[in-house]
Amino acid sequence: MKAAVYYGARDLKVESVSIPEVGPNDILLKVKYCGICGSDVHSYGTGLYIHKGQIMGHEFSGEVVKTGSNVKGIRVGERGTGFHAGVCGTCYWCQNKQFTLCPDLFNNSTGYGLPGAFAEYVKIPNALPGINFHGIPDEIDDMTAATIEPVSVSAYTVELCQPKAGDQVVVMGAGLIGNVVMQVFKASNAGKVIVTEVSEKRLQAAINSGADTVINAAKENVVERLKDLVGVGKYHFNEGAMADIVVDAAGAPSAVEQSFEIVRSGGTIAFVGLPEKKASIDTTKIVHKMPKIIGALGGNFQAAISLLREGKVKTKRLVSHTFPLEYAREAFETQMNPHESVKVMIEY
What we know:
Elements: E1 2-8, E2 11-16, E3 27-35, H1 38-46, E4 59-67, E5 79-82, H2 92-95, E6 109-110, E7 113-114, E8 121-124, E9 133-135, H3 142-145, H4 148-161, E10 169-172, H5 176-187, E11 193-197, H6 200-208, E12 213-216, H7 222-230, E13 232-235, E14 238-241, E15 243-248, H8 253-262, E16 263-271, H9 283-289, E17 292-295, H10 301-309, E18 319-324, H11 328-335, E19 343-347
Parallel strand pairs: 6-7, 10-11, 10-15, 11-12, 15-16, 16-17, 18-19
Antiparallel strand pairs: 1-2, 3-4, 3-8, 3-19, 4-5, 5-9, 13-14
Helix pairs in contact: 4-5, 4-10
């Protein structure tokens, strides 16, 4: 089969590799679409989370073409997606059922250690329906289904934030994750949901997806504009904005730093973006504002499927480009440019 193989920073080659062997507990899917995740961009651009010879790709849809003899509840011909999380099962976190925190997670998971879906076929080992394999309902097309994984991350992020009706929310970053986080907040009956972003293309995507207000962070003073939109939040010796919830889906150091200015005292900040550079954080603001700070890693696939099936979240409009596998490098280069792209996918 053909696959996009990583050889170093910005060095991706499409070449022939062996089709994965299917054991008695495994399934094999023929890939339909695979999206380029922000973590894939970091891997491609800097070598983060990856090693030479790796096949990335974990945001995919496909069709089951082979099942192992012990596999139950999954049939050949079924459309599906999934993510195999290869945790150790023995560490402190696994013993406490905090599997996302297992140190081995990124060594033995789909697209991280195990071959991913930037290939014509992808294997899910130890396949279990509703666990690491999820069937795709008829209401969800193949392209949309390839966004189930990032929608699951977005839904889980909002779940962790525990929004209340009327909460004023700021989402920083308008890639696919930021745009979907915004839509999930809207579906949860939060109040005003505002999106900040430096890319006009992505801001327009946020407007089209239902954001109440957007702010171009490259042209406007974000903190001052938000004081006007959500109110002035006074705290000891200073003042900022009055957002109840801030979600950083950008990962830019400036967004990380601004989040502590934007959140109200006692509010919530969730970080789901992955920065390539370190941010400088003024811990004085943490002490005096006492925000709840959340790191969001992991997802809720069933919630994502429900949101997409019911039309509460729409992602197809966020797919700005598709490329054939042969042009995988060009696809990654396009995804790296936020002014050109929102979501880029490989189409098979």
